[in-house]
Amino acid sequence: MMGTGEDDVNHSGISAAKEWRSGWTLVLASAIGFSFFSVMLAGAGLFIEPLSKQFGWSRTLVSSGASVATITTAILSPFVGYLVDRFGTRRIALPGVLLTMLSVAAFGLVSGSAVQWIALWFFFGVVSSTIKSTAWTAAVVGVFEKSRGLALGLTFSGTALSQMIVPPLGNFLINEFGWRAAFVWLSIGWGSITFLLCLLFFFDMHDRAAGRRSEEAAKAKRAALHLPGLTPRQALGDWAIWRLAISNFIVMVVTIGFTFHQIPILTEAGVARSYAVWLVSLGGVTAIIGKLATGLLLDRFRPNWIVGITLGITAFAFAFLMDGLRSPVLIVVAMLVNGYAAGTKTQITGYLTARYGGTKSFGVIYGAMAALLALASGLGPTTAGKIYDVYGGYEPFLAAGAVCCFIGGLLIMSLPKYPVWEKEHPSEPAAAVAAGE
Q1: At what angle are helices 328-342 and 273-298 packed, to 10 degrees?
Q2: What pLDDT does residue 226 have?
Q3: How many angstroms separate the CA atoms of 129 and 126, rounded?
Q4: 116 or 432: which leads in pLDDT
Q5: How far is it, in rounded angstroms, from Cα 323 to Cα 398?
Q6: H-assigned helices in 269-344
Q7: Dihedral angle at the C-alpha atoms of 193, 194, 200, 201, nearest 10 degrees?
Q8: What residues does 358 pair with on adjacent strands?
Q9: Residue 267: which residues within 8 A CB-CB, separation 6 or more?
Q10: What is the pLDDT of residues 278-304, one digit of tens each?
């Protein structure tokens, strides 16, 4: 039965207003940080046609680069999660932003070598693993309890911001300066703003616990947090965690594949490229709405129903683009629905992982969850590209996407009510940190 979850959300005595007074700059920096990580995926579809024409590459080869990067982040995510738990997110994210800027700019050096293309994506996967969802989620979850859903929604709006801005901006840069310069401009422009905001405002609960004390005192403070939740071993045997992982895996395979290929999918459906980039951008606007609406709903109603319905309706986005069903109106509706629903997946994963796994080992558990999602993200673009190369179109992929999203939504709706970790295991030191004390 759906109902308010207010009594289960916060038992530390910290009001939502106080959380936002001390943490809104953290959310801002995290959102922009996550947007920078998402720039490459948001703009990848723009480079498929220019690279294919210049070097004669197949879509499978072009797509395989992103797959290599996401599989690399999948392997590294648990390790990054451990580093986040051990050292805090700031020490991981700041150098990660600088290295990611370097890796994105390096794509402007592509010479036509398939080996070089894969190597560049591998390097991007290694360095960008430090600024993917684990870092930003861990920081926000550690500071926000009462408004955790909304805070995560705003944080993950960074991906929607990329989706909204990068397609028209990237298309303009490619048309005016060429695809090589476009990589460099996206790297320097977006990366510099990200680094400045993170340098000024990105401090998680570990950093707040440390304050101006010595490293020894900071370690003692961190050890005294006694956060509630599952250990990594316990999480491995938790069926709710597994259902969450399976659902997100199958949904991510098809939705990331769609995101990477959405401009070619639209042009195959008869939409001019100049209009396609604006449809993708429009999807970014609805993605922001989806993240905020989902965040507010998660804070007020039973999460599995909200999440299950949100993921399930993504099936319509795939179905509406299929030959025989699509129309100009349904194409627009499909992009709006996809933007609204697909933009919430990482936010949903972070929220439900914290609810079902607690915050005791959140970095490690979420790092493993993020690894699985990164693996799915890696399979998605290559799978969609391979289907296109084999069948000469995206129809089989769109049909599979509709089925996977429907099943993923049902799995989430079957989840039990989440444990009330804060009620059973109050965490006073954590509350003090969140309050900035």
Answers
A1: 40
A2: 59
A3: 6
A4: 116
A5: 10
A6: 273-298, 303-312, 314-319, 328-342
A7: 130
A8: 229
A9: 273, 276
A10: 888 877 777 777 777 777 777 677 777
CB-based contact 430:142 (threshold 8 Å) = yes
Which residues, 6 or more positions from 293, have their beta carbon under 8 angstroms from its beta carbon? 153, 340
Distances (CA, A) of 405 to 19, 249, 282, 309, 430: 34, 10, 21, 10, 37
pLDDT tens readout for residues 238-250 = 778 888 888 888 8
CA distance 183 to 122: 16
How far are the Cα atoms of 6, 154, 202, 384 from residue 366, in angstroms, in the given order?
24, 19, 20, 27
Strand, helix or coil at 358? Answer: strand
Spatial separation of the C-alpha atoms in residues 425 and 11, rounded to whole Å: 10
Tokens, residue 107: 């794509």
Amino acid, single-letter form, for residue 423: K
Q: Which of 338, 339, 345 is nearest to 286 (CA)?
A: 339
Q: Domain 16-434, CATH 2.40.128.90 — does that match?
A: no
| Cα(206)–Cα(56) distance, integer angstroms | 50
**Token couple for 252:** 């991510």
Distance between first and last Cα of the chain: 38
At 343, the amino acid letter reads G
What DSSP line would sit under 164-214, residue for residue? HHHHHHHHHHHHHH-HHHHHHHIIIIIHHHHHHHHHHH---HHHHHHTTS-
- Domain range summary for the chain, segments of one domain joined by +: 16-434
Contact 48, 59 (CB under 8 A): yes
Cα angle: 280, vertex 126, 401; to 5 degrees: 35
What is the rounded CA–CA span in Å between residue 335 and residue 340?
Answer: 9
CB 235 within 8 A of CB 223: no
What gap in Å lies between CA 48 and CA 115, rounded to an integer?
17
pTM higher than 0.85, yes or no?
no
Cα Rg of the chain (Å, integer): 21
